[in-house]
Design a protein that fits this description.
heterodimer, A: alpha/beta, 19% strand, B: Rossmann fold, Rossmann fold, 2 domains, 5-stranded mixed beta sheet, 12 helices
Chain lengths: 215, 354
């Protein structure tokens, strides 16, 4: 199992962190583990893991999220409740961080507490995101995230996809990109995630929870 | 044919603008269009372009006026409350006869409203984005790919008719991620912008970009000349998609991301044996009046669907001019209508006019 007690998902925005976070939390809960999902995204008010609170809670996942889109303020504040994840050490924690260095700023304030544990900081990449379409640009975003969060990435997750147009071949062909990025960053490639229906060999199968209004 | 990438609507707008020769962007962040600024801030410095986060929306639009006066392709973007702030500058740009592209990723209003998708700025975009007699070319894409395809059109039309073009999107379109493919990179046409303030080199009289005319007859003539150009736009630049309209008895009319919800409802209606169709204005100014008037000859009824309390419906009623009934269904304040809701409205109409 690649997850540590505290598993942090970071990456370029739109790399698929939120969908992965929801999948990971539900999978851990499905294995009977007590798990808390923290939505640390203070950048994007659309498509957040807190949108899936009902589903997550019905399957036993505790959700901690900033009060944001439901308030009159455009400025989100992180709830003090987040501190509880550092004290309830019998619970697994998934931290869904906002995109890019801007999103990682919110993570930085917890860096001293996170560093006291054997944490996993996963850098999620999608080769088909335009601004991280080559290894160098993907690593540049990683360096920015590390600088802002004051934490080091421990592993890479390959989440290459083209939304509804994703094919098994597309995922397989991104493997080289992901391996090279991981190698150059000096961290292991933890897993490659792909939509369950695609049945990509050796891939971590995920459900798509983030959907469009007309689907 | 290039490789496909997964892009947010807002990113696609930014990249498509750059690919169409826009090297000068002036903006101010606001949800749900901030990714446009964020993208420009990352890319422009790498390619020798200008990204400038202004001190306010009012400053940003006036920087666009300045850049456009120099003959370059310039752009600004915002969301509803920010667009209201820009309206003074938009009027000045229209009154100065210089081209530019403005993006509005609409959110709920009035006031600060909300941050969820809306189409409640239709009147503002098509009737009065500022004071005075003037129009903007208003393009309303429905998919991320269409955004990419229309950005070039927006810049080209703005240049051709020397007027601002507005891309009217909504939060759904700005935030959604879809696979897109970029057409080959196109250089901005090097056409003579003989009005531009690029320096005289001592060879001609200085160009002056101005919107102030203190002689009433001169101002009237300037406006009449401008409106003659608007007539050309109306004649030549209407863009509209008709979907399943050939034998349709119930015609829906919707634009932007809402049109995708409605298209889903039309398919559901067809599956139930109701002859439904969709007219999707791609330009909301100039408005596809003729297409709608023609469709009204054969239709039993029309249904306009918008994310507002009903704004475009007035243009549809003017086009239909009593030839058939026009009803309206809308959700507002950031609520997106569902295909099922729209289907129920189509059924009401299909049953009610039997």
């Amino acid at each position: 199992m690649v997850f540590k007690r505290i598993s942090i998902l970071t990456g370029h925005y739109g790399s698929g962190k939120t969908n992965l976070a929801v999948n990971f939390a539900l999978d851990l809960a499905g294995q009977g583990k007590p798990v808390t999902l923290v939505d640390l995204d203070i950048v994007n008010p659309y498509f957040r893991s807190a949108d899936f609170r009902e589903l997550l809670e019905s399957r036993g996942v505790r959700v901690i999220a900033p009060h944001y889109a439901n308030t009159n303020l455009d400025i989100p504040a992180l709830p003090a409740e987040i501190q509880s994840v550092f004290h309830q050490t019998d619970r697994m924690v998934i931290l869904d961080v906002g995109g890019d260095d801007a999103g990682a700023i919110a993570l930085g304030q917890f860096a001293p507490q996170i560093r006291q544990e054997d944490y996993g900081l996963f850098y999620v990449v999608n080769e088909r995101r335009y601004l991280t379409r080559d290894v160098e640009s993907a690593l540049e975003v990683l360096r920015e995230i590390e600088a802002c969060s004051r934490l080091k990435a421990t592993a890479l997750i390959n989440n290459t996809n083209l939304g509804e147009e994703t094919t098994p071949e597309l995922v397989v062909s991104s493997q080289g990109f992901a391996e090279e990025a991981a190698h150059k960053a000096g961290i292991p490639l933890a897993l490659t995630a792909a939509k369950r229906e695609l049945a990509v060999p050796d891939a971590y199968p995920v459900e798509i929870y983030v959907r469009t209004a007309w689907a | 044919m290039g490789q496909k990438f997964l892009m947010k609507g807002n990113e696609a707008i930014a990249e498509a603008a750059i690919r169409n020769g826009c090297m000068h962007f002036f903006g101010y962040p606001i949800t749900p269009q901030t990714e446009v600024s964020a993208y420009m801030s990352k890319v422009m410095p790498k390619i020798g372009g200008t990204f400038l986060q202004a001190e306010s929306e009012i400053a940003a639009i006036n920087m666009v006026l300045g850049a456009a006066s120099c003959g370059v392709r310039a752009m600004t973007s915002s969301s509803s409350p920010g667009i209201s702030l820009k309206s003074e500058g938009v009027s000045y740009i229209a009154g100065s006869d210089v081209p530019c592209v403005i993006l509005n990723v609409m959110r709920g209003g009035p006031g600060l409203g909300g941050i969820q998708p809306s189409q409640a700025d239709y009147w503002q975009a098509t009737k009065a984005l500022g004071h005075g007699d003037f129009q903007l070319i208003v393009l309303a894409p429905a998919t991320v790919q269409e955004i990419v395809d229309l950005m070039g059109t927006a810049f080209d039309l703005a240049d051709q008719y020397r007027m601002p073009a507005l891309i009217l999107a909504d939060g759904m379109l700005g935030q959604m991620m879809e696979p897109v493919e970029f057409p080959e990179k196109k250089e901005a046409p090097a056409g003579a912008k003989d009005y531009a303030t690029t320096g005289t080199q001592g060879k001609r009289k200085p160009n002056i970009i101005n919107s102030l005319y203190l002689q009433a007859p001169v101002l009237e003539q300037t406006i009449r000349d401008r409106f003659a150009r608007y007539e050309q736009v109306k004649q030549n630049e209407v863009r509209v998609e008709e979907y399943a309209c050939d034998d349709a008895e119930i015609i829906t009319v919707a634009y932007g991301a809402t049109a995708r919800v409605v298209k889903g409802a039309v398919d559901m209606a067809r599956a139930e044996g109701i002859k439904a169709g969709l007219i999707r204005p791609i330009t909301v100014w100039p408005f596809p009046t003729e297409t709608i008037a023609k469709a009204a000859e054969k239709a039993r009824g029309m249904l306009v669907v918008e994310m507002s309390m009903g704004q475009m419906v007035e243009d549809v009623r003017l086009a239909v001019n009593g030839r058939c009934g026009v009803s309206f269904f809308g959700r507002t304040g950031g609520v997106v209508p569902s295909p099922a809701e729209v289907l129920a409205e189509i059924k009401k109409l299909a049953g009610g006019t039997n």
